[in-house]
Design brief:
The complex is a heterodimer of chains A (332) and B (306). Chain A is α/β, with parallel strands linked by helices. Chain A has twelve helices and twelve strands. In chain A, helix 6 packs parallel to helix 7. Chain A starts with 5 loop residues before the first strand and ends with a helix. By secondary structure, chain B is mainly alpha-helical. Chain B is built from 14 helices and no strands. The longest helix of chain B has 36 residues. Chain B starts with a helix and ends with a helix. Classes of the chains: A alpha/beta (332), B mainly alpha (306). The interface between A and B is medium-sized, with 28 and 21 residues.
Chain lengths: 332, 306
């Protein structure tokens, strides 16, 4: 079996307060794999550690955060062994990221052409003129009309949807192997969202990109992703192919998430909401983090945190019910 | 853009009108200038004569009308004390003030901007703490005290620099440093806070995600945005420096307009005080206007809002 494009092994990122007294386990023992050209969706509530995980992969964490354990293998190299200068060579060139807010992620004082061409100049040593030409091509490739005029414009002269496309063009400018998109469509309206998602898929196909898609929208996951990782309180609680998890979720949290989506052909009277609040990451319950809200929890769940169980070669889950589930499936 | 400028000019004229009324009334509260101009024991007729000569026997609104009518014609009146046109006195002193302010501004920016950047980039580190102490001292030590300490040290003990007057570069150093010291601290603090705000923005995050070297992230993406408020403040401060150097110019006997104003207040020389304040106010209003227009040129967003 060839080694995957990206493989995270027992990766943990903790935020430590200045006095060192409060430790927030924002990302806790995460193990994930991603093959070249594949799309991985990461879903979870706000504060479940999705964005911290993305910034951990790029090693661009705020000063208070520490990567405390694990390995991050990317194209056969451990990113945690790299120096800061070597990491800069990875960012923007081999792994790119698209941020949430298209309004704020472009610098207001520089032209679009300058900002799109910048990674090409820095990573490939291209001249100003040739980076400018490439920028025009990139803007054309994200389907913005008359790119020759647009390159000379400033961010405020464009709509939100257009700016997000520009950010996309920045992302693919150096033909990275992996693109991480952190809720890239939350601030766009629905029709623009659909267009943007289609654009991302086309770009992915054209460039053979692997995509990590961070979202809380399961509809987008169903449309866009091959693999799904569900995060809860800093941990991946269930991980596997999207179609299989959607048709037969194992973890009670995944079940609850899927139960809370409205459907067109819905004959249920009520949407199911998940009772309770996510736990405080600085003072986690001793057992499973989801136990206080879990309808299927029993004594062991409240006392001891479950490890990751392989239900079959494709699906893994952190739940004491998983082995039971696996044997039930084997019996059927 | 035209409409934007027209509106700004309108506001500016309104501010100046309000200033003229205020200074005209306030200067008259300081007391009767005639009592300082006559010999002790002068007869009431003489006093009345001088008062009539100076136009101080007319009703207030009439005095104000004269003041404004002359002002509109570019005449600031005659000094009670020197008996020469205020404008003439002013232009004798102005070059000294300009020189002092220019050197003080250069010093304050040379100190303030790099130390502000350093403090923001090393936030909560050694340089940030050093900068905070520097800013605290800069903003809280009164300039008369800084001036006196400098004189004590460099003139009295070391004998390197002249303690007062004007002449060569040596005369300029201490007053310029005393005046620039306060503004250096102000420029440092603003550079730091504005830099910190910019460094937390999404576009700086994206610049880092692009893999740009830190020098480019700070020097290009952050600095240009962070300097916008600093440019504004420095532009206004340059004019403020010309007009508030009263204490510094008095301590070092520097013959600028600050000292002229000080003399004017001491002798209750109404036309001098009014003139210096009105010209100073006009300068500050004008520089604000220029900064607003410059802003619109630098930052394309403001251009379109109008």
């Amino acid at each position: 079996m060839p080694s995957p494009l990206l493989s995270l092994e027992n990766l943990s990122t903790h935020y430590v307060s200045q006095q060192g007294t409060r430790v927030v386990r924002a990302v806790d023992e995460v193990t994930l794999r991603l093959e070249a050209g594949e799309t991985l969706g990461i879903v979870g509530e706000s504060g479940s550690g999705k964005s911290t995980l993305a910034l951990t992969i790029l090693r661009l964490l705020p000063a208070a955060a520490r990567i405390t354990s694990g390995r991050m293998m990317f194209e056969g190299e451990n990113l945690l062994d790299k120096s800061d200068a070597e990491m800069r060579e990875v960012r923007g060139k081999r792994i790119a990221m698209i941020l949430q807010d298209p309004m704020a992620s472009l610098n207001p004082l520089f032209t679009i052409g300058d900002q799109v061409g910048e990674p090409i100049r820095v990573h490939e040593g291209a001249s100003r003129a040739s980076a400018w030409k490439r920028a025009i091509e990139l803007i054309r490739s994200v389907r913005i009309a008359s790119p020759e005029t647009r390159v000379r414009q400033f961010p405020h002269e464009m709509s939100g949807g257009m700016r997000q496309r520009i950010v996309g063009a920045v992302g693919i400018s150096c033909e990275p192997r992996l693109l991480i998109a952190d809720e890239p469509t939350t601030s766009l309206d629905l029709t623009i969202q659909a267009q943007y998602l289609k654009l991302l898929r086309d770009l992915q196909r054209e460039h053979g990109l692997a995509l990590i898609f961070i979202t809380h929208n399961l509809g987008i996951v169903a449309k866009m992703c091959d693999q799904l990782a569900v995060m809860y309180a800093g941990r991946v609680v269930e991980h596997g192919p999207v179609s299989r998890i959607f048709s037969r979720p194992m973890h009670p949290y995944t079940k609850a998430l899927l139960g809370s989506i409205p459907r067109m052909a819905d004959n249920r009277d009520h949407l199911t909401a998940i009772d309770g609040q996510p736990p405080d990451l600085a003072s986690m319950p001793p057992g499973c983090a989801f136990a206080p809200r879990c309808p299927e929890a029993f004594d062991r769940c409240r006392a001891e945190a479950p490890p990751e169980f392989a239900i079959d070669p494709e699906i893994r889950a952190r739940c004491w019910l998983a082995p039971i589930d696996a044997s039930a499936k084997a019996a059927s | 853009m035209k409409q934007y400028i027209a509106r700004r000019v309108g506001y500016s004229l309104l501010s100046l009108f309000l200033l003229s009324v205020t200074i005209f009334l306030f200067v008259r509260v300081t007391g009767d200038p005639v009592s300082l101009l006559v010999e002790p024991g002068a007869s009431p007729e003489d006093i009345e004569n001088i008062r009539h000569q100076l136009g101080l026997d007319q009703p207030l609104w009439e005095q104000y009308w004269h003041f404004m009518a002359n002002l509109a014609a570019g005449d600031l009146g005659q000094s009670f004390y020197y008996r020469t046109p205020v404008l003439e006195l002013y232009f004798q002193r102005l070059p000294h003030s300009l020189l002092l302010a220019a050197v003080a501004m250069a010093l304050s920016l040379l100190i303030g901007i790099p130390s502000g950047i350093l403090a923001a980039v090393r936030v909560d580190g050694f340089w940030d703490s050093a900068g905070k102490i520097f800013a605290l001292l800069g903003l809280s030590l009164p300039s008369f005290w800084v001036g006196l300490v400098l004189i004590l040290f460099f003139s009295v003990y070391l004998g390197w620099l002249p303690s007062s007057g004007s002449g060569g570069v040596a005369h300029l150093l201490m007053p310029a440093f005393t005046l620039g010291w306060y503004f250096a601290a102000a420029h440092m603090r603003l550079t730091r806070s504005s830099m910190l705000e910019v460094l937390g923005s999404e576009y700086i995050k994206l610049a880092r995600l692009k893999g740009l070297p830190e020098a480019l992230v700070i020097g290009k993406h952050a600095l240009k945005n962070a300097l916008i408020p600093v440019i504004t403040l420095a532009g206004i401060n340059l004019v403020v420096m010309i007009n508030v150097a009263v204490v510094v110019e008095t301590v070092f006997a520097w013959p600028g307009i600050g000292r002229l104003l000080y003399e004017g207040i001491t002798f209750r020389d109404f036309p001098v005080v009014q003139g210096v304040v009105i010209i100073g106010g006009a300068m500050i209003v004008l520089v604000n206007l220029l900064v607003d227009i410059l802003y619109a040129l630098i930052d394309p967003r403001i251009r379109l809002e109008s």
